[in-house]
Amino acid sequence: MNINKFIYIKLIIILLFSSNILFASDTKLIKQNWSFKGVTGKFDRSSLQRGYQVYTEVCASCHSMNLLSYRNLGEKGGPEFSLDQVKAIAANFEITDGPNSDGEMFTRPGRPSDKFVSPYPNVQASMAANGGAYPPDMSVLVKARKGGSDYIYSLLVGYEDPPSGFKLDDGVYYNKYMDGNQIKMSNPLSDGLVSYSDGTNATESQMAKDVTHFLTWAAEPHLENRHKTGWRVIIFLIILTLLVYFSMKKVWSRIDSEK
Amino acid sequence: MSEHHYTPSSKFGKWFNDRLPLLTLGDHLASYPTPKNLNYWWTFGGILTFCLVTQIVTGLVLAMHYVAHADMAFDSVEHIMRNVNYGWLIRYIHSNGASMFFLAVYIHIFRALFYGSYKSPREIIWILGMLIYLLMMATAFMGYVLPWGQMSFWGATVITNLFSAIPLVGESIVTWLWGGYAVDNPTLTRFFSLHYLFPFIILGLVVLHIWALHVPGNNNPVGIDIKKPSKDTVPFHPYITIKDLFALLIFLIIFSGFVFFSPNVLGHSDNYIQANPMVTPKHIVPEWYLLPFYAILRSVPDKLGGVVLLFASIFILMALPWLDRSKVRSAIFRPIYKQFFWLLVLDVLVLGYVGAMPAEGLYLLIARVSTAYYFLHFLVILPVLSSFEKTEPLPLSISAPVLTGNSNEYK
Amino acid sequence: MEKSGKKNNRRDFLFTASYTVGAVGIGATIWPFIHQMNPDSSVKALATTEVDISQVEPGNSITVLWRGKPVFIKRRTESEISEARSVKLEELKHPEKDEDRVQKPEWLVMMGICTHLGCVPLSDKGEYNGWFCPCHGSHYDTAGRIRKGPAPVNMEIPKYEFVDNNTIKIG
Question: CB distance A22–B357 less than 8 Å?
């Protein structure tokens, strides 16, 4: 009976996790020792700040991040730019606002409360400019891909010459990690493409790492708070469980002693 | 402790109770005689009540911030996750809470199957429970549509299309369900409305479920009828309440593990892509708790046949009290049934596994064998077993086996 | 049931501790469910609005929305200013100097909300040439001070500053 129970519980656990294991892609992703991984994971501020630089200088020319506002860059648990830096970053962008009292739209410098400016006015425009492929919005991209951060990083460094005999369609590139190995986006990163303001050497893998770090935060901005709250809740629950367990023993001892 | 009529001690209490006997109800619930040998598999009733209340409360909060519109639903969920104070916490509790709810309900159902809790005189409790389970599936399905991601959209498309298998009126029914010619804004808004309504119907059924339980009283691991109240029973409070609380806290620790440390592990990454009616995801899979039924659906190569089998697999459970006619309730005293019970558990787990896999090759074969076995269990094995099985002798009372053995197992 | 007193104390302590810790837990759980109804971070981020006032002629006013409420920005004429400044403080229900209610005498920036029950008063109406609230008949003067009617205090002055001569930042 007890062995049966044990098997039963084990089977349930296997069932719960099986779908995720089973769906793992055939090509092994490059695993990184991300600082945000694990139950005590935190973001690396300087990597987030560098990652924002890569995003804004490289990715943002095609990829939008509609769910983020400039103010998010200064919020706790994120890149934590100072308030003045956030204001300066926002002011670099031209925002279309209005209509004004004459009914006209006008442009003004960005404010922290503004959403990230999109490179294209709509999806159709972005598809027209990119040979029919829609550069996906990057706000929750990490959560929208199997393998998450490791997948994004692998993809960014996964550009290769196609193996002999592989028939590559027109206007696409070979990528080891892309589903079907064909990707419309050309290799976006190359050594020295950006010059990091903190002096870090901008190698291709460094940039891929930083921008993935940034995108992971963008997809899950409250991750640090979630981990921290989680520890408090679980430690609290364990204490309460122990108290209730001993109280239960006491209460039931009345019945047990009657036997 | 004999049968007594409750009289409130205070004058006001008496005045109030004569007009609305709430205090009598409270006294009934507290002193309700419960078998003293209930094990931890019996704590899931309380856990499920907790799950239902949690889903209602968190859902109520989410509805304050969610926008049920095809253009805004996805962004409004992200607004909850990013901007609303503690929105991420409340939403993760709600989404993982659905999974925990189903985990608990499956344990609850299999407990009833093992100990024969569906048998006379508890058939109505069992049928009410199955209705609750059915409504839970409908509610969970509609809730999964609300974030308006790719899995939401295509899940809704596939499931609503099940009804198109109905001869003659199928297409009209599907159009009626959609409020259009595809899953679109009208579908989303009506799903939101019903997703809000159904939990309250479930709540009502839960009250009936508990009411029906309090008529014959709890079944117990030994499965014999007991005198209530007697030496075999304890008052519900504090004995069962504190035991339920302890089990609930253990459950909450696991629940918190999911919410805080892997909140998306039970979900599907495609649902973080906004719904797009032009592109279908590569694998459409329902949430894990619906996978066994999904496997049954796909194991039949005929559209109508698959749908019929899917619904049959659920409704067959309602007929269970009349399919299994063995007088002995608990599997402890049914050596052969016990083996078949574990085979059924395994069968359902296998169905869940193949439900997550592509419907082809070996997986399809396994799915078909498991589906056949599922029906075989209920339609053939149980009725045959009820007349052939030689059951072991039952004890006279709960205290009897405990007194003779030297088992000191904590209850 | 015969247990020593010491043991009873321990039992009582155990139960008290369980109840206390449990109550703390319930309290801590309730807070997120209350706090979620407070303004969220996107609402709080909109706390400032910049207004271009270069088009406003003397004697005219514009109304802008700030935090979901109207703000009156009135360019007062010389006579309106002197009218506001000539009133004796003792005559006022809520004595405030006009000088304390404006940063530049020409510009009156004020929440367009009647302090009675929150309606929006009408401009250039009422017995004191200022504002008049149609809901319950409160009269305000050219400095937005309550002169007659049920409103208890003067209309509120929001936090604002002149970014330059043509721009006001509210909030």
Answer: yes
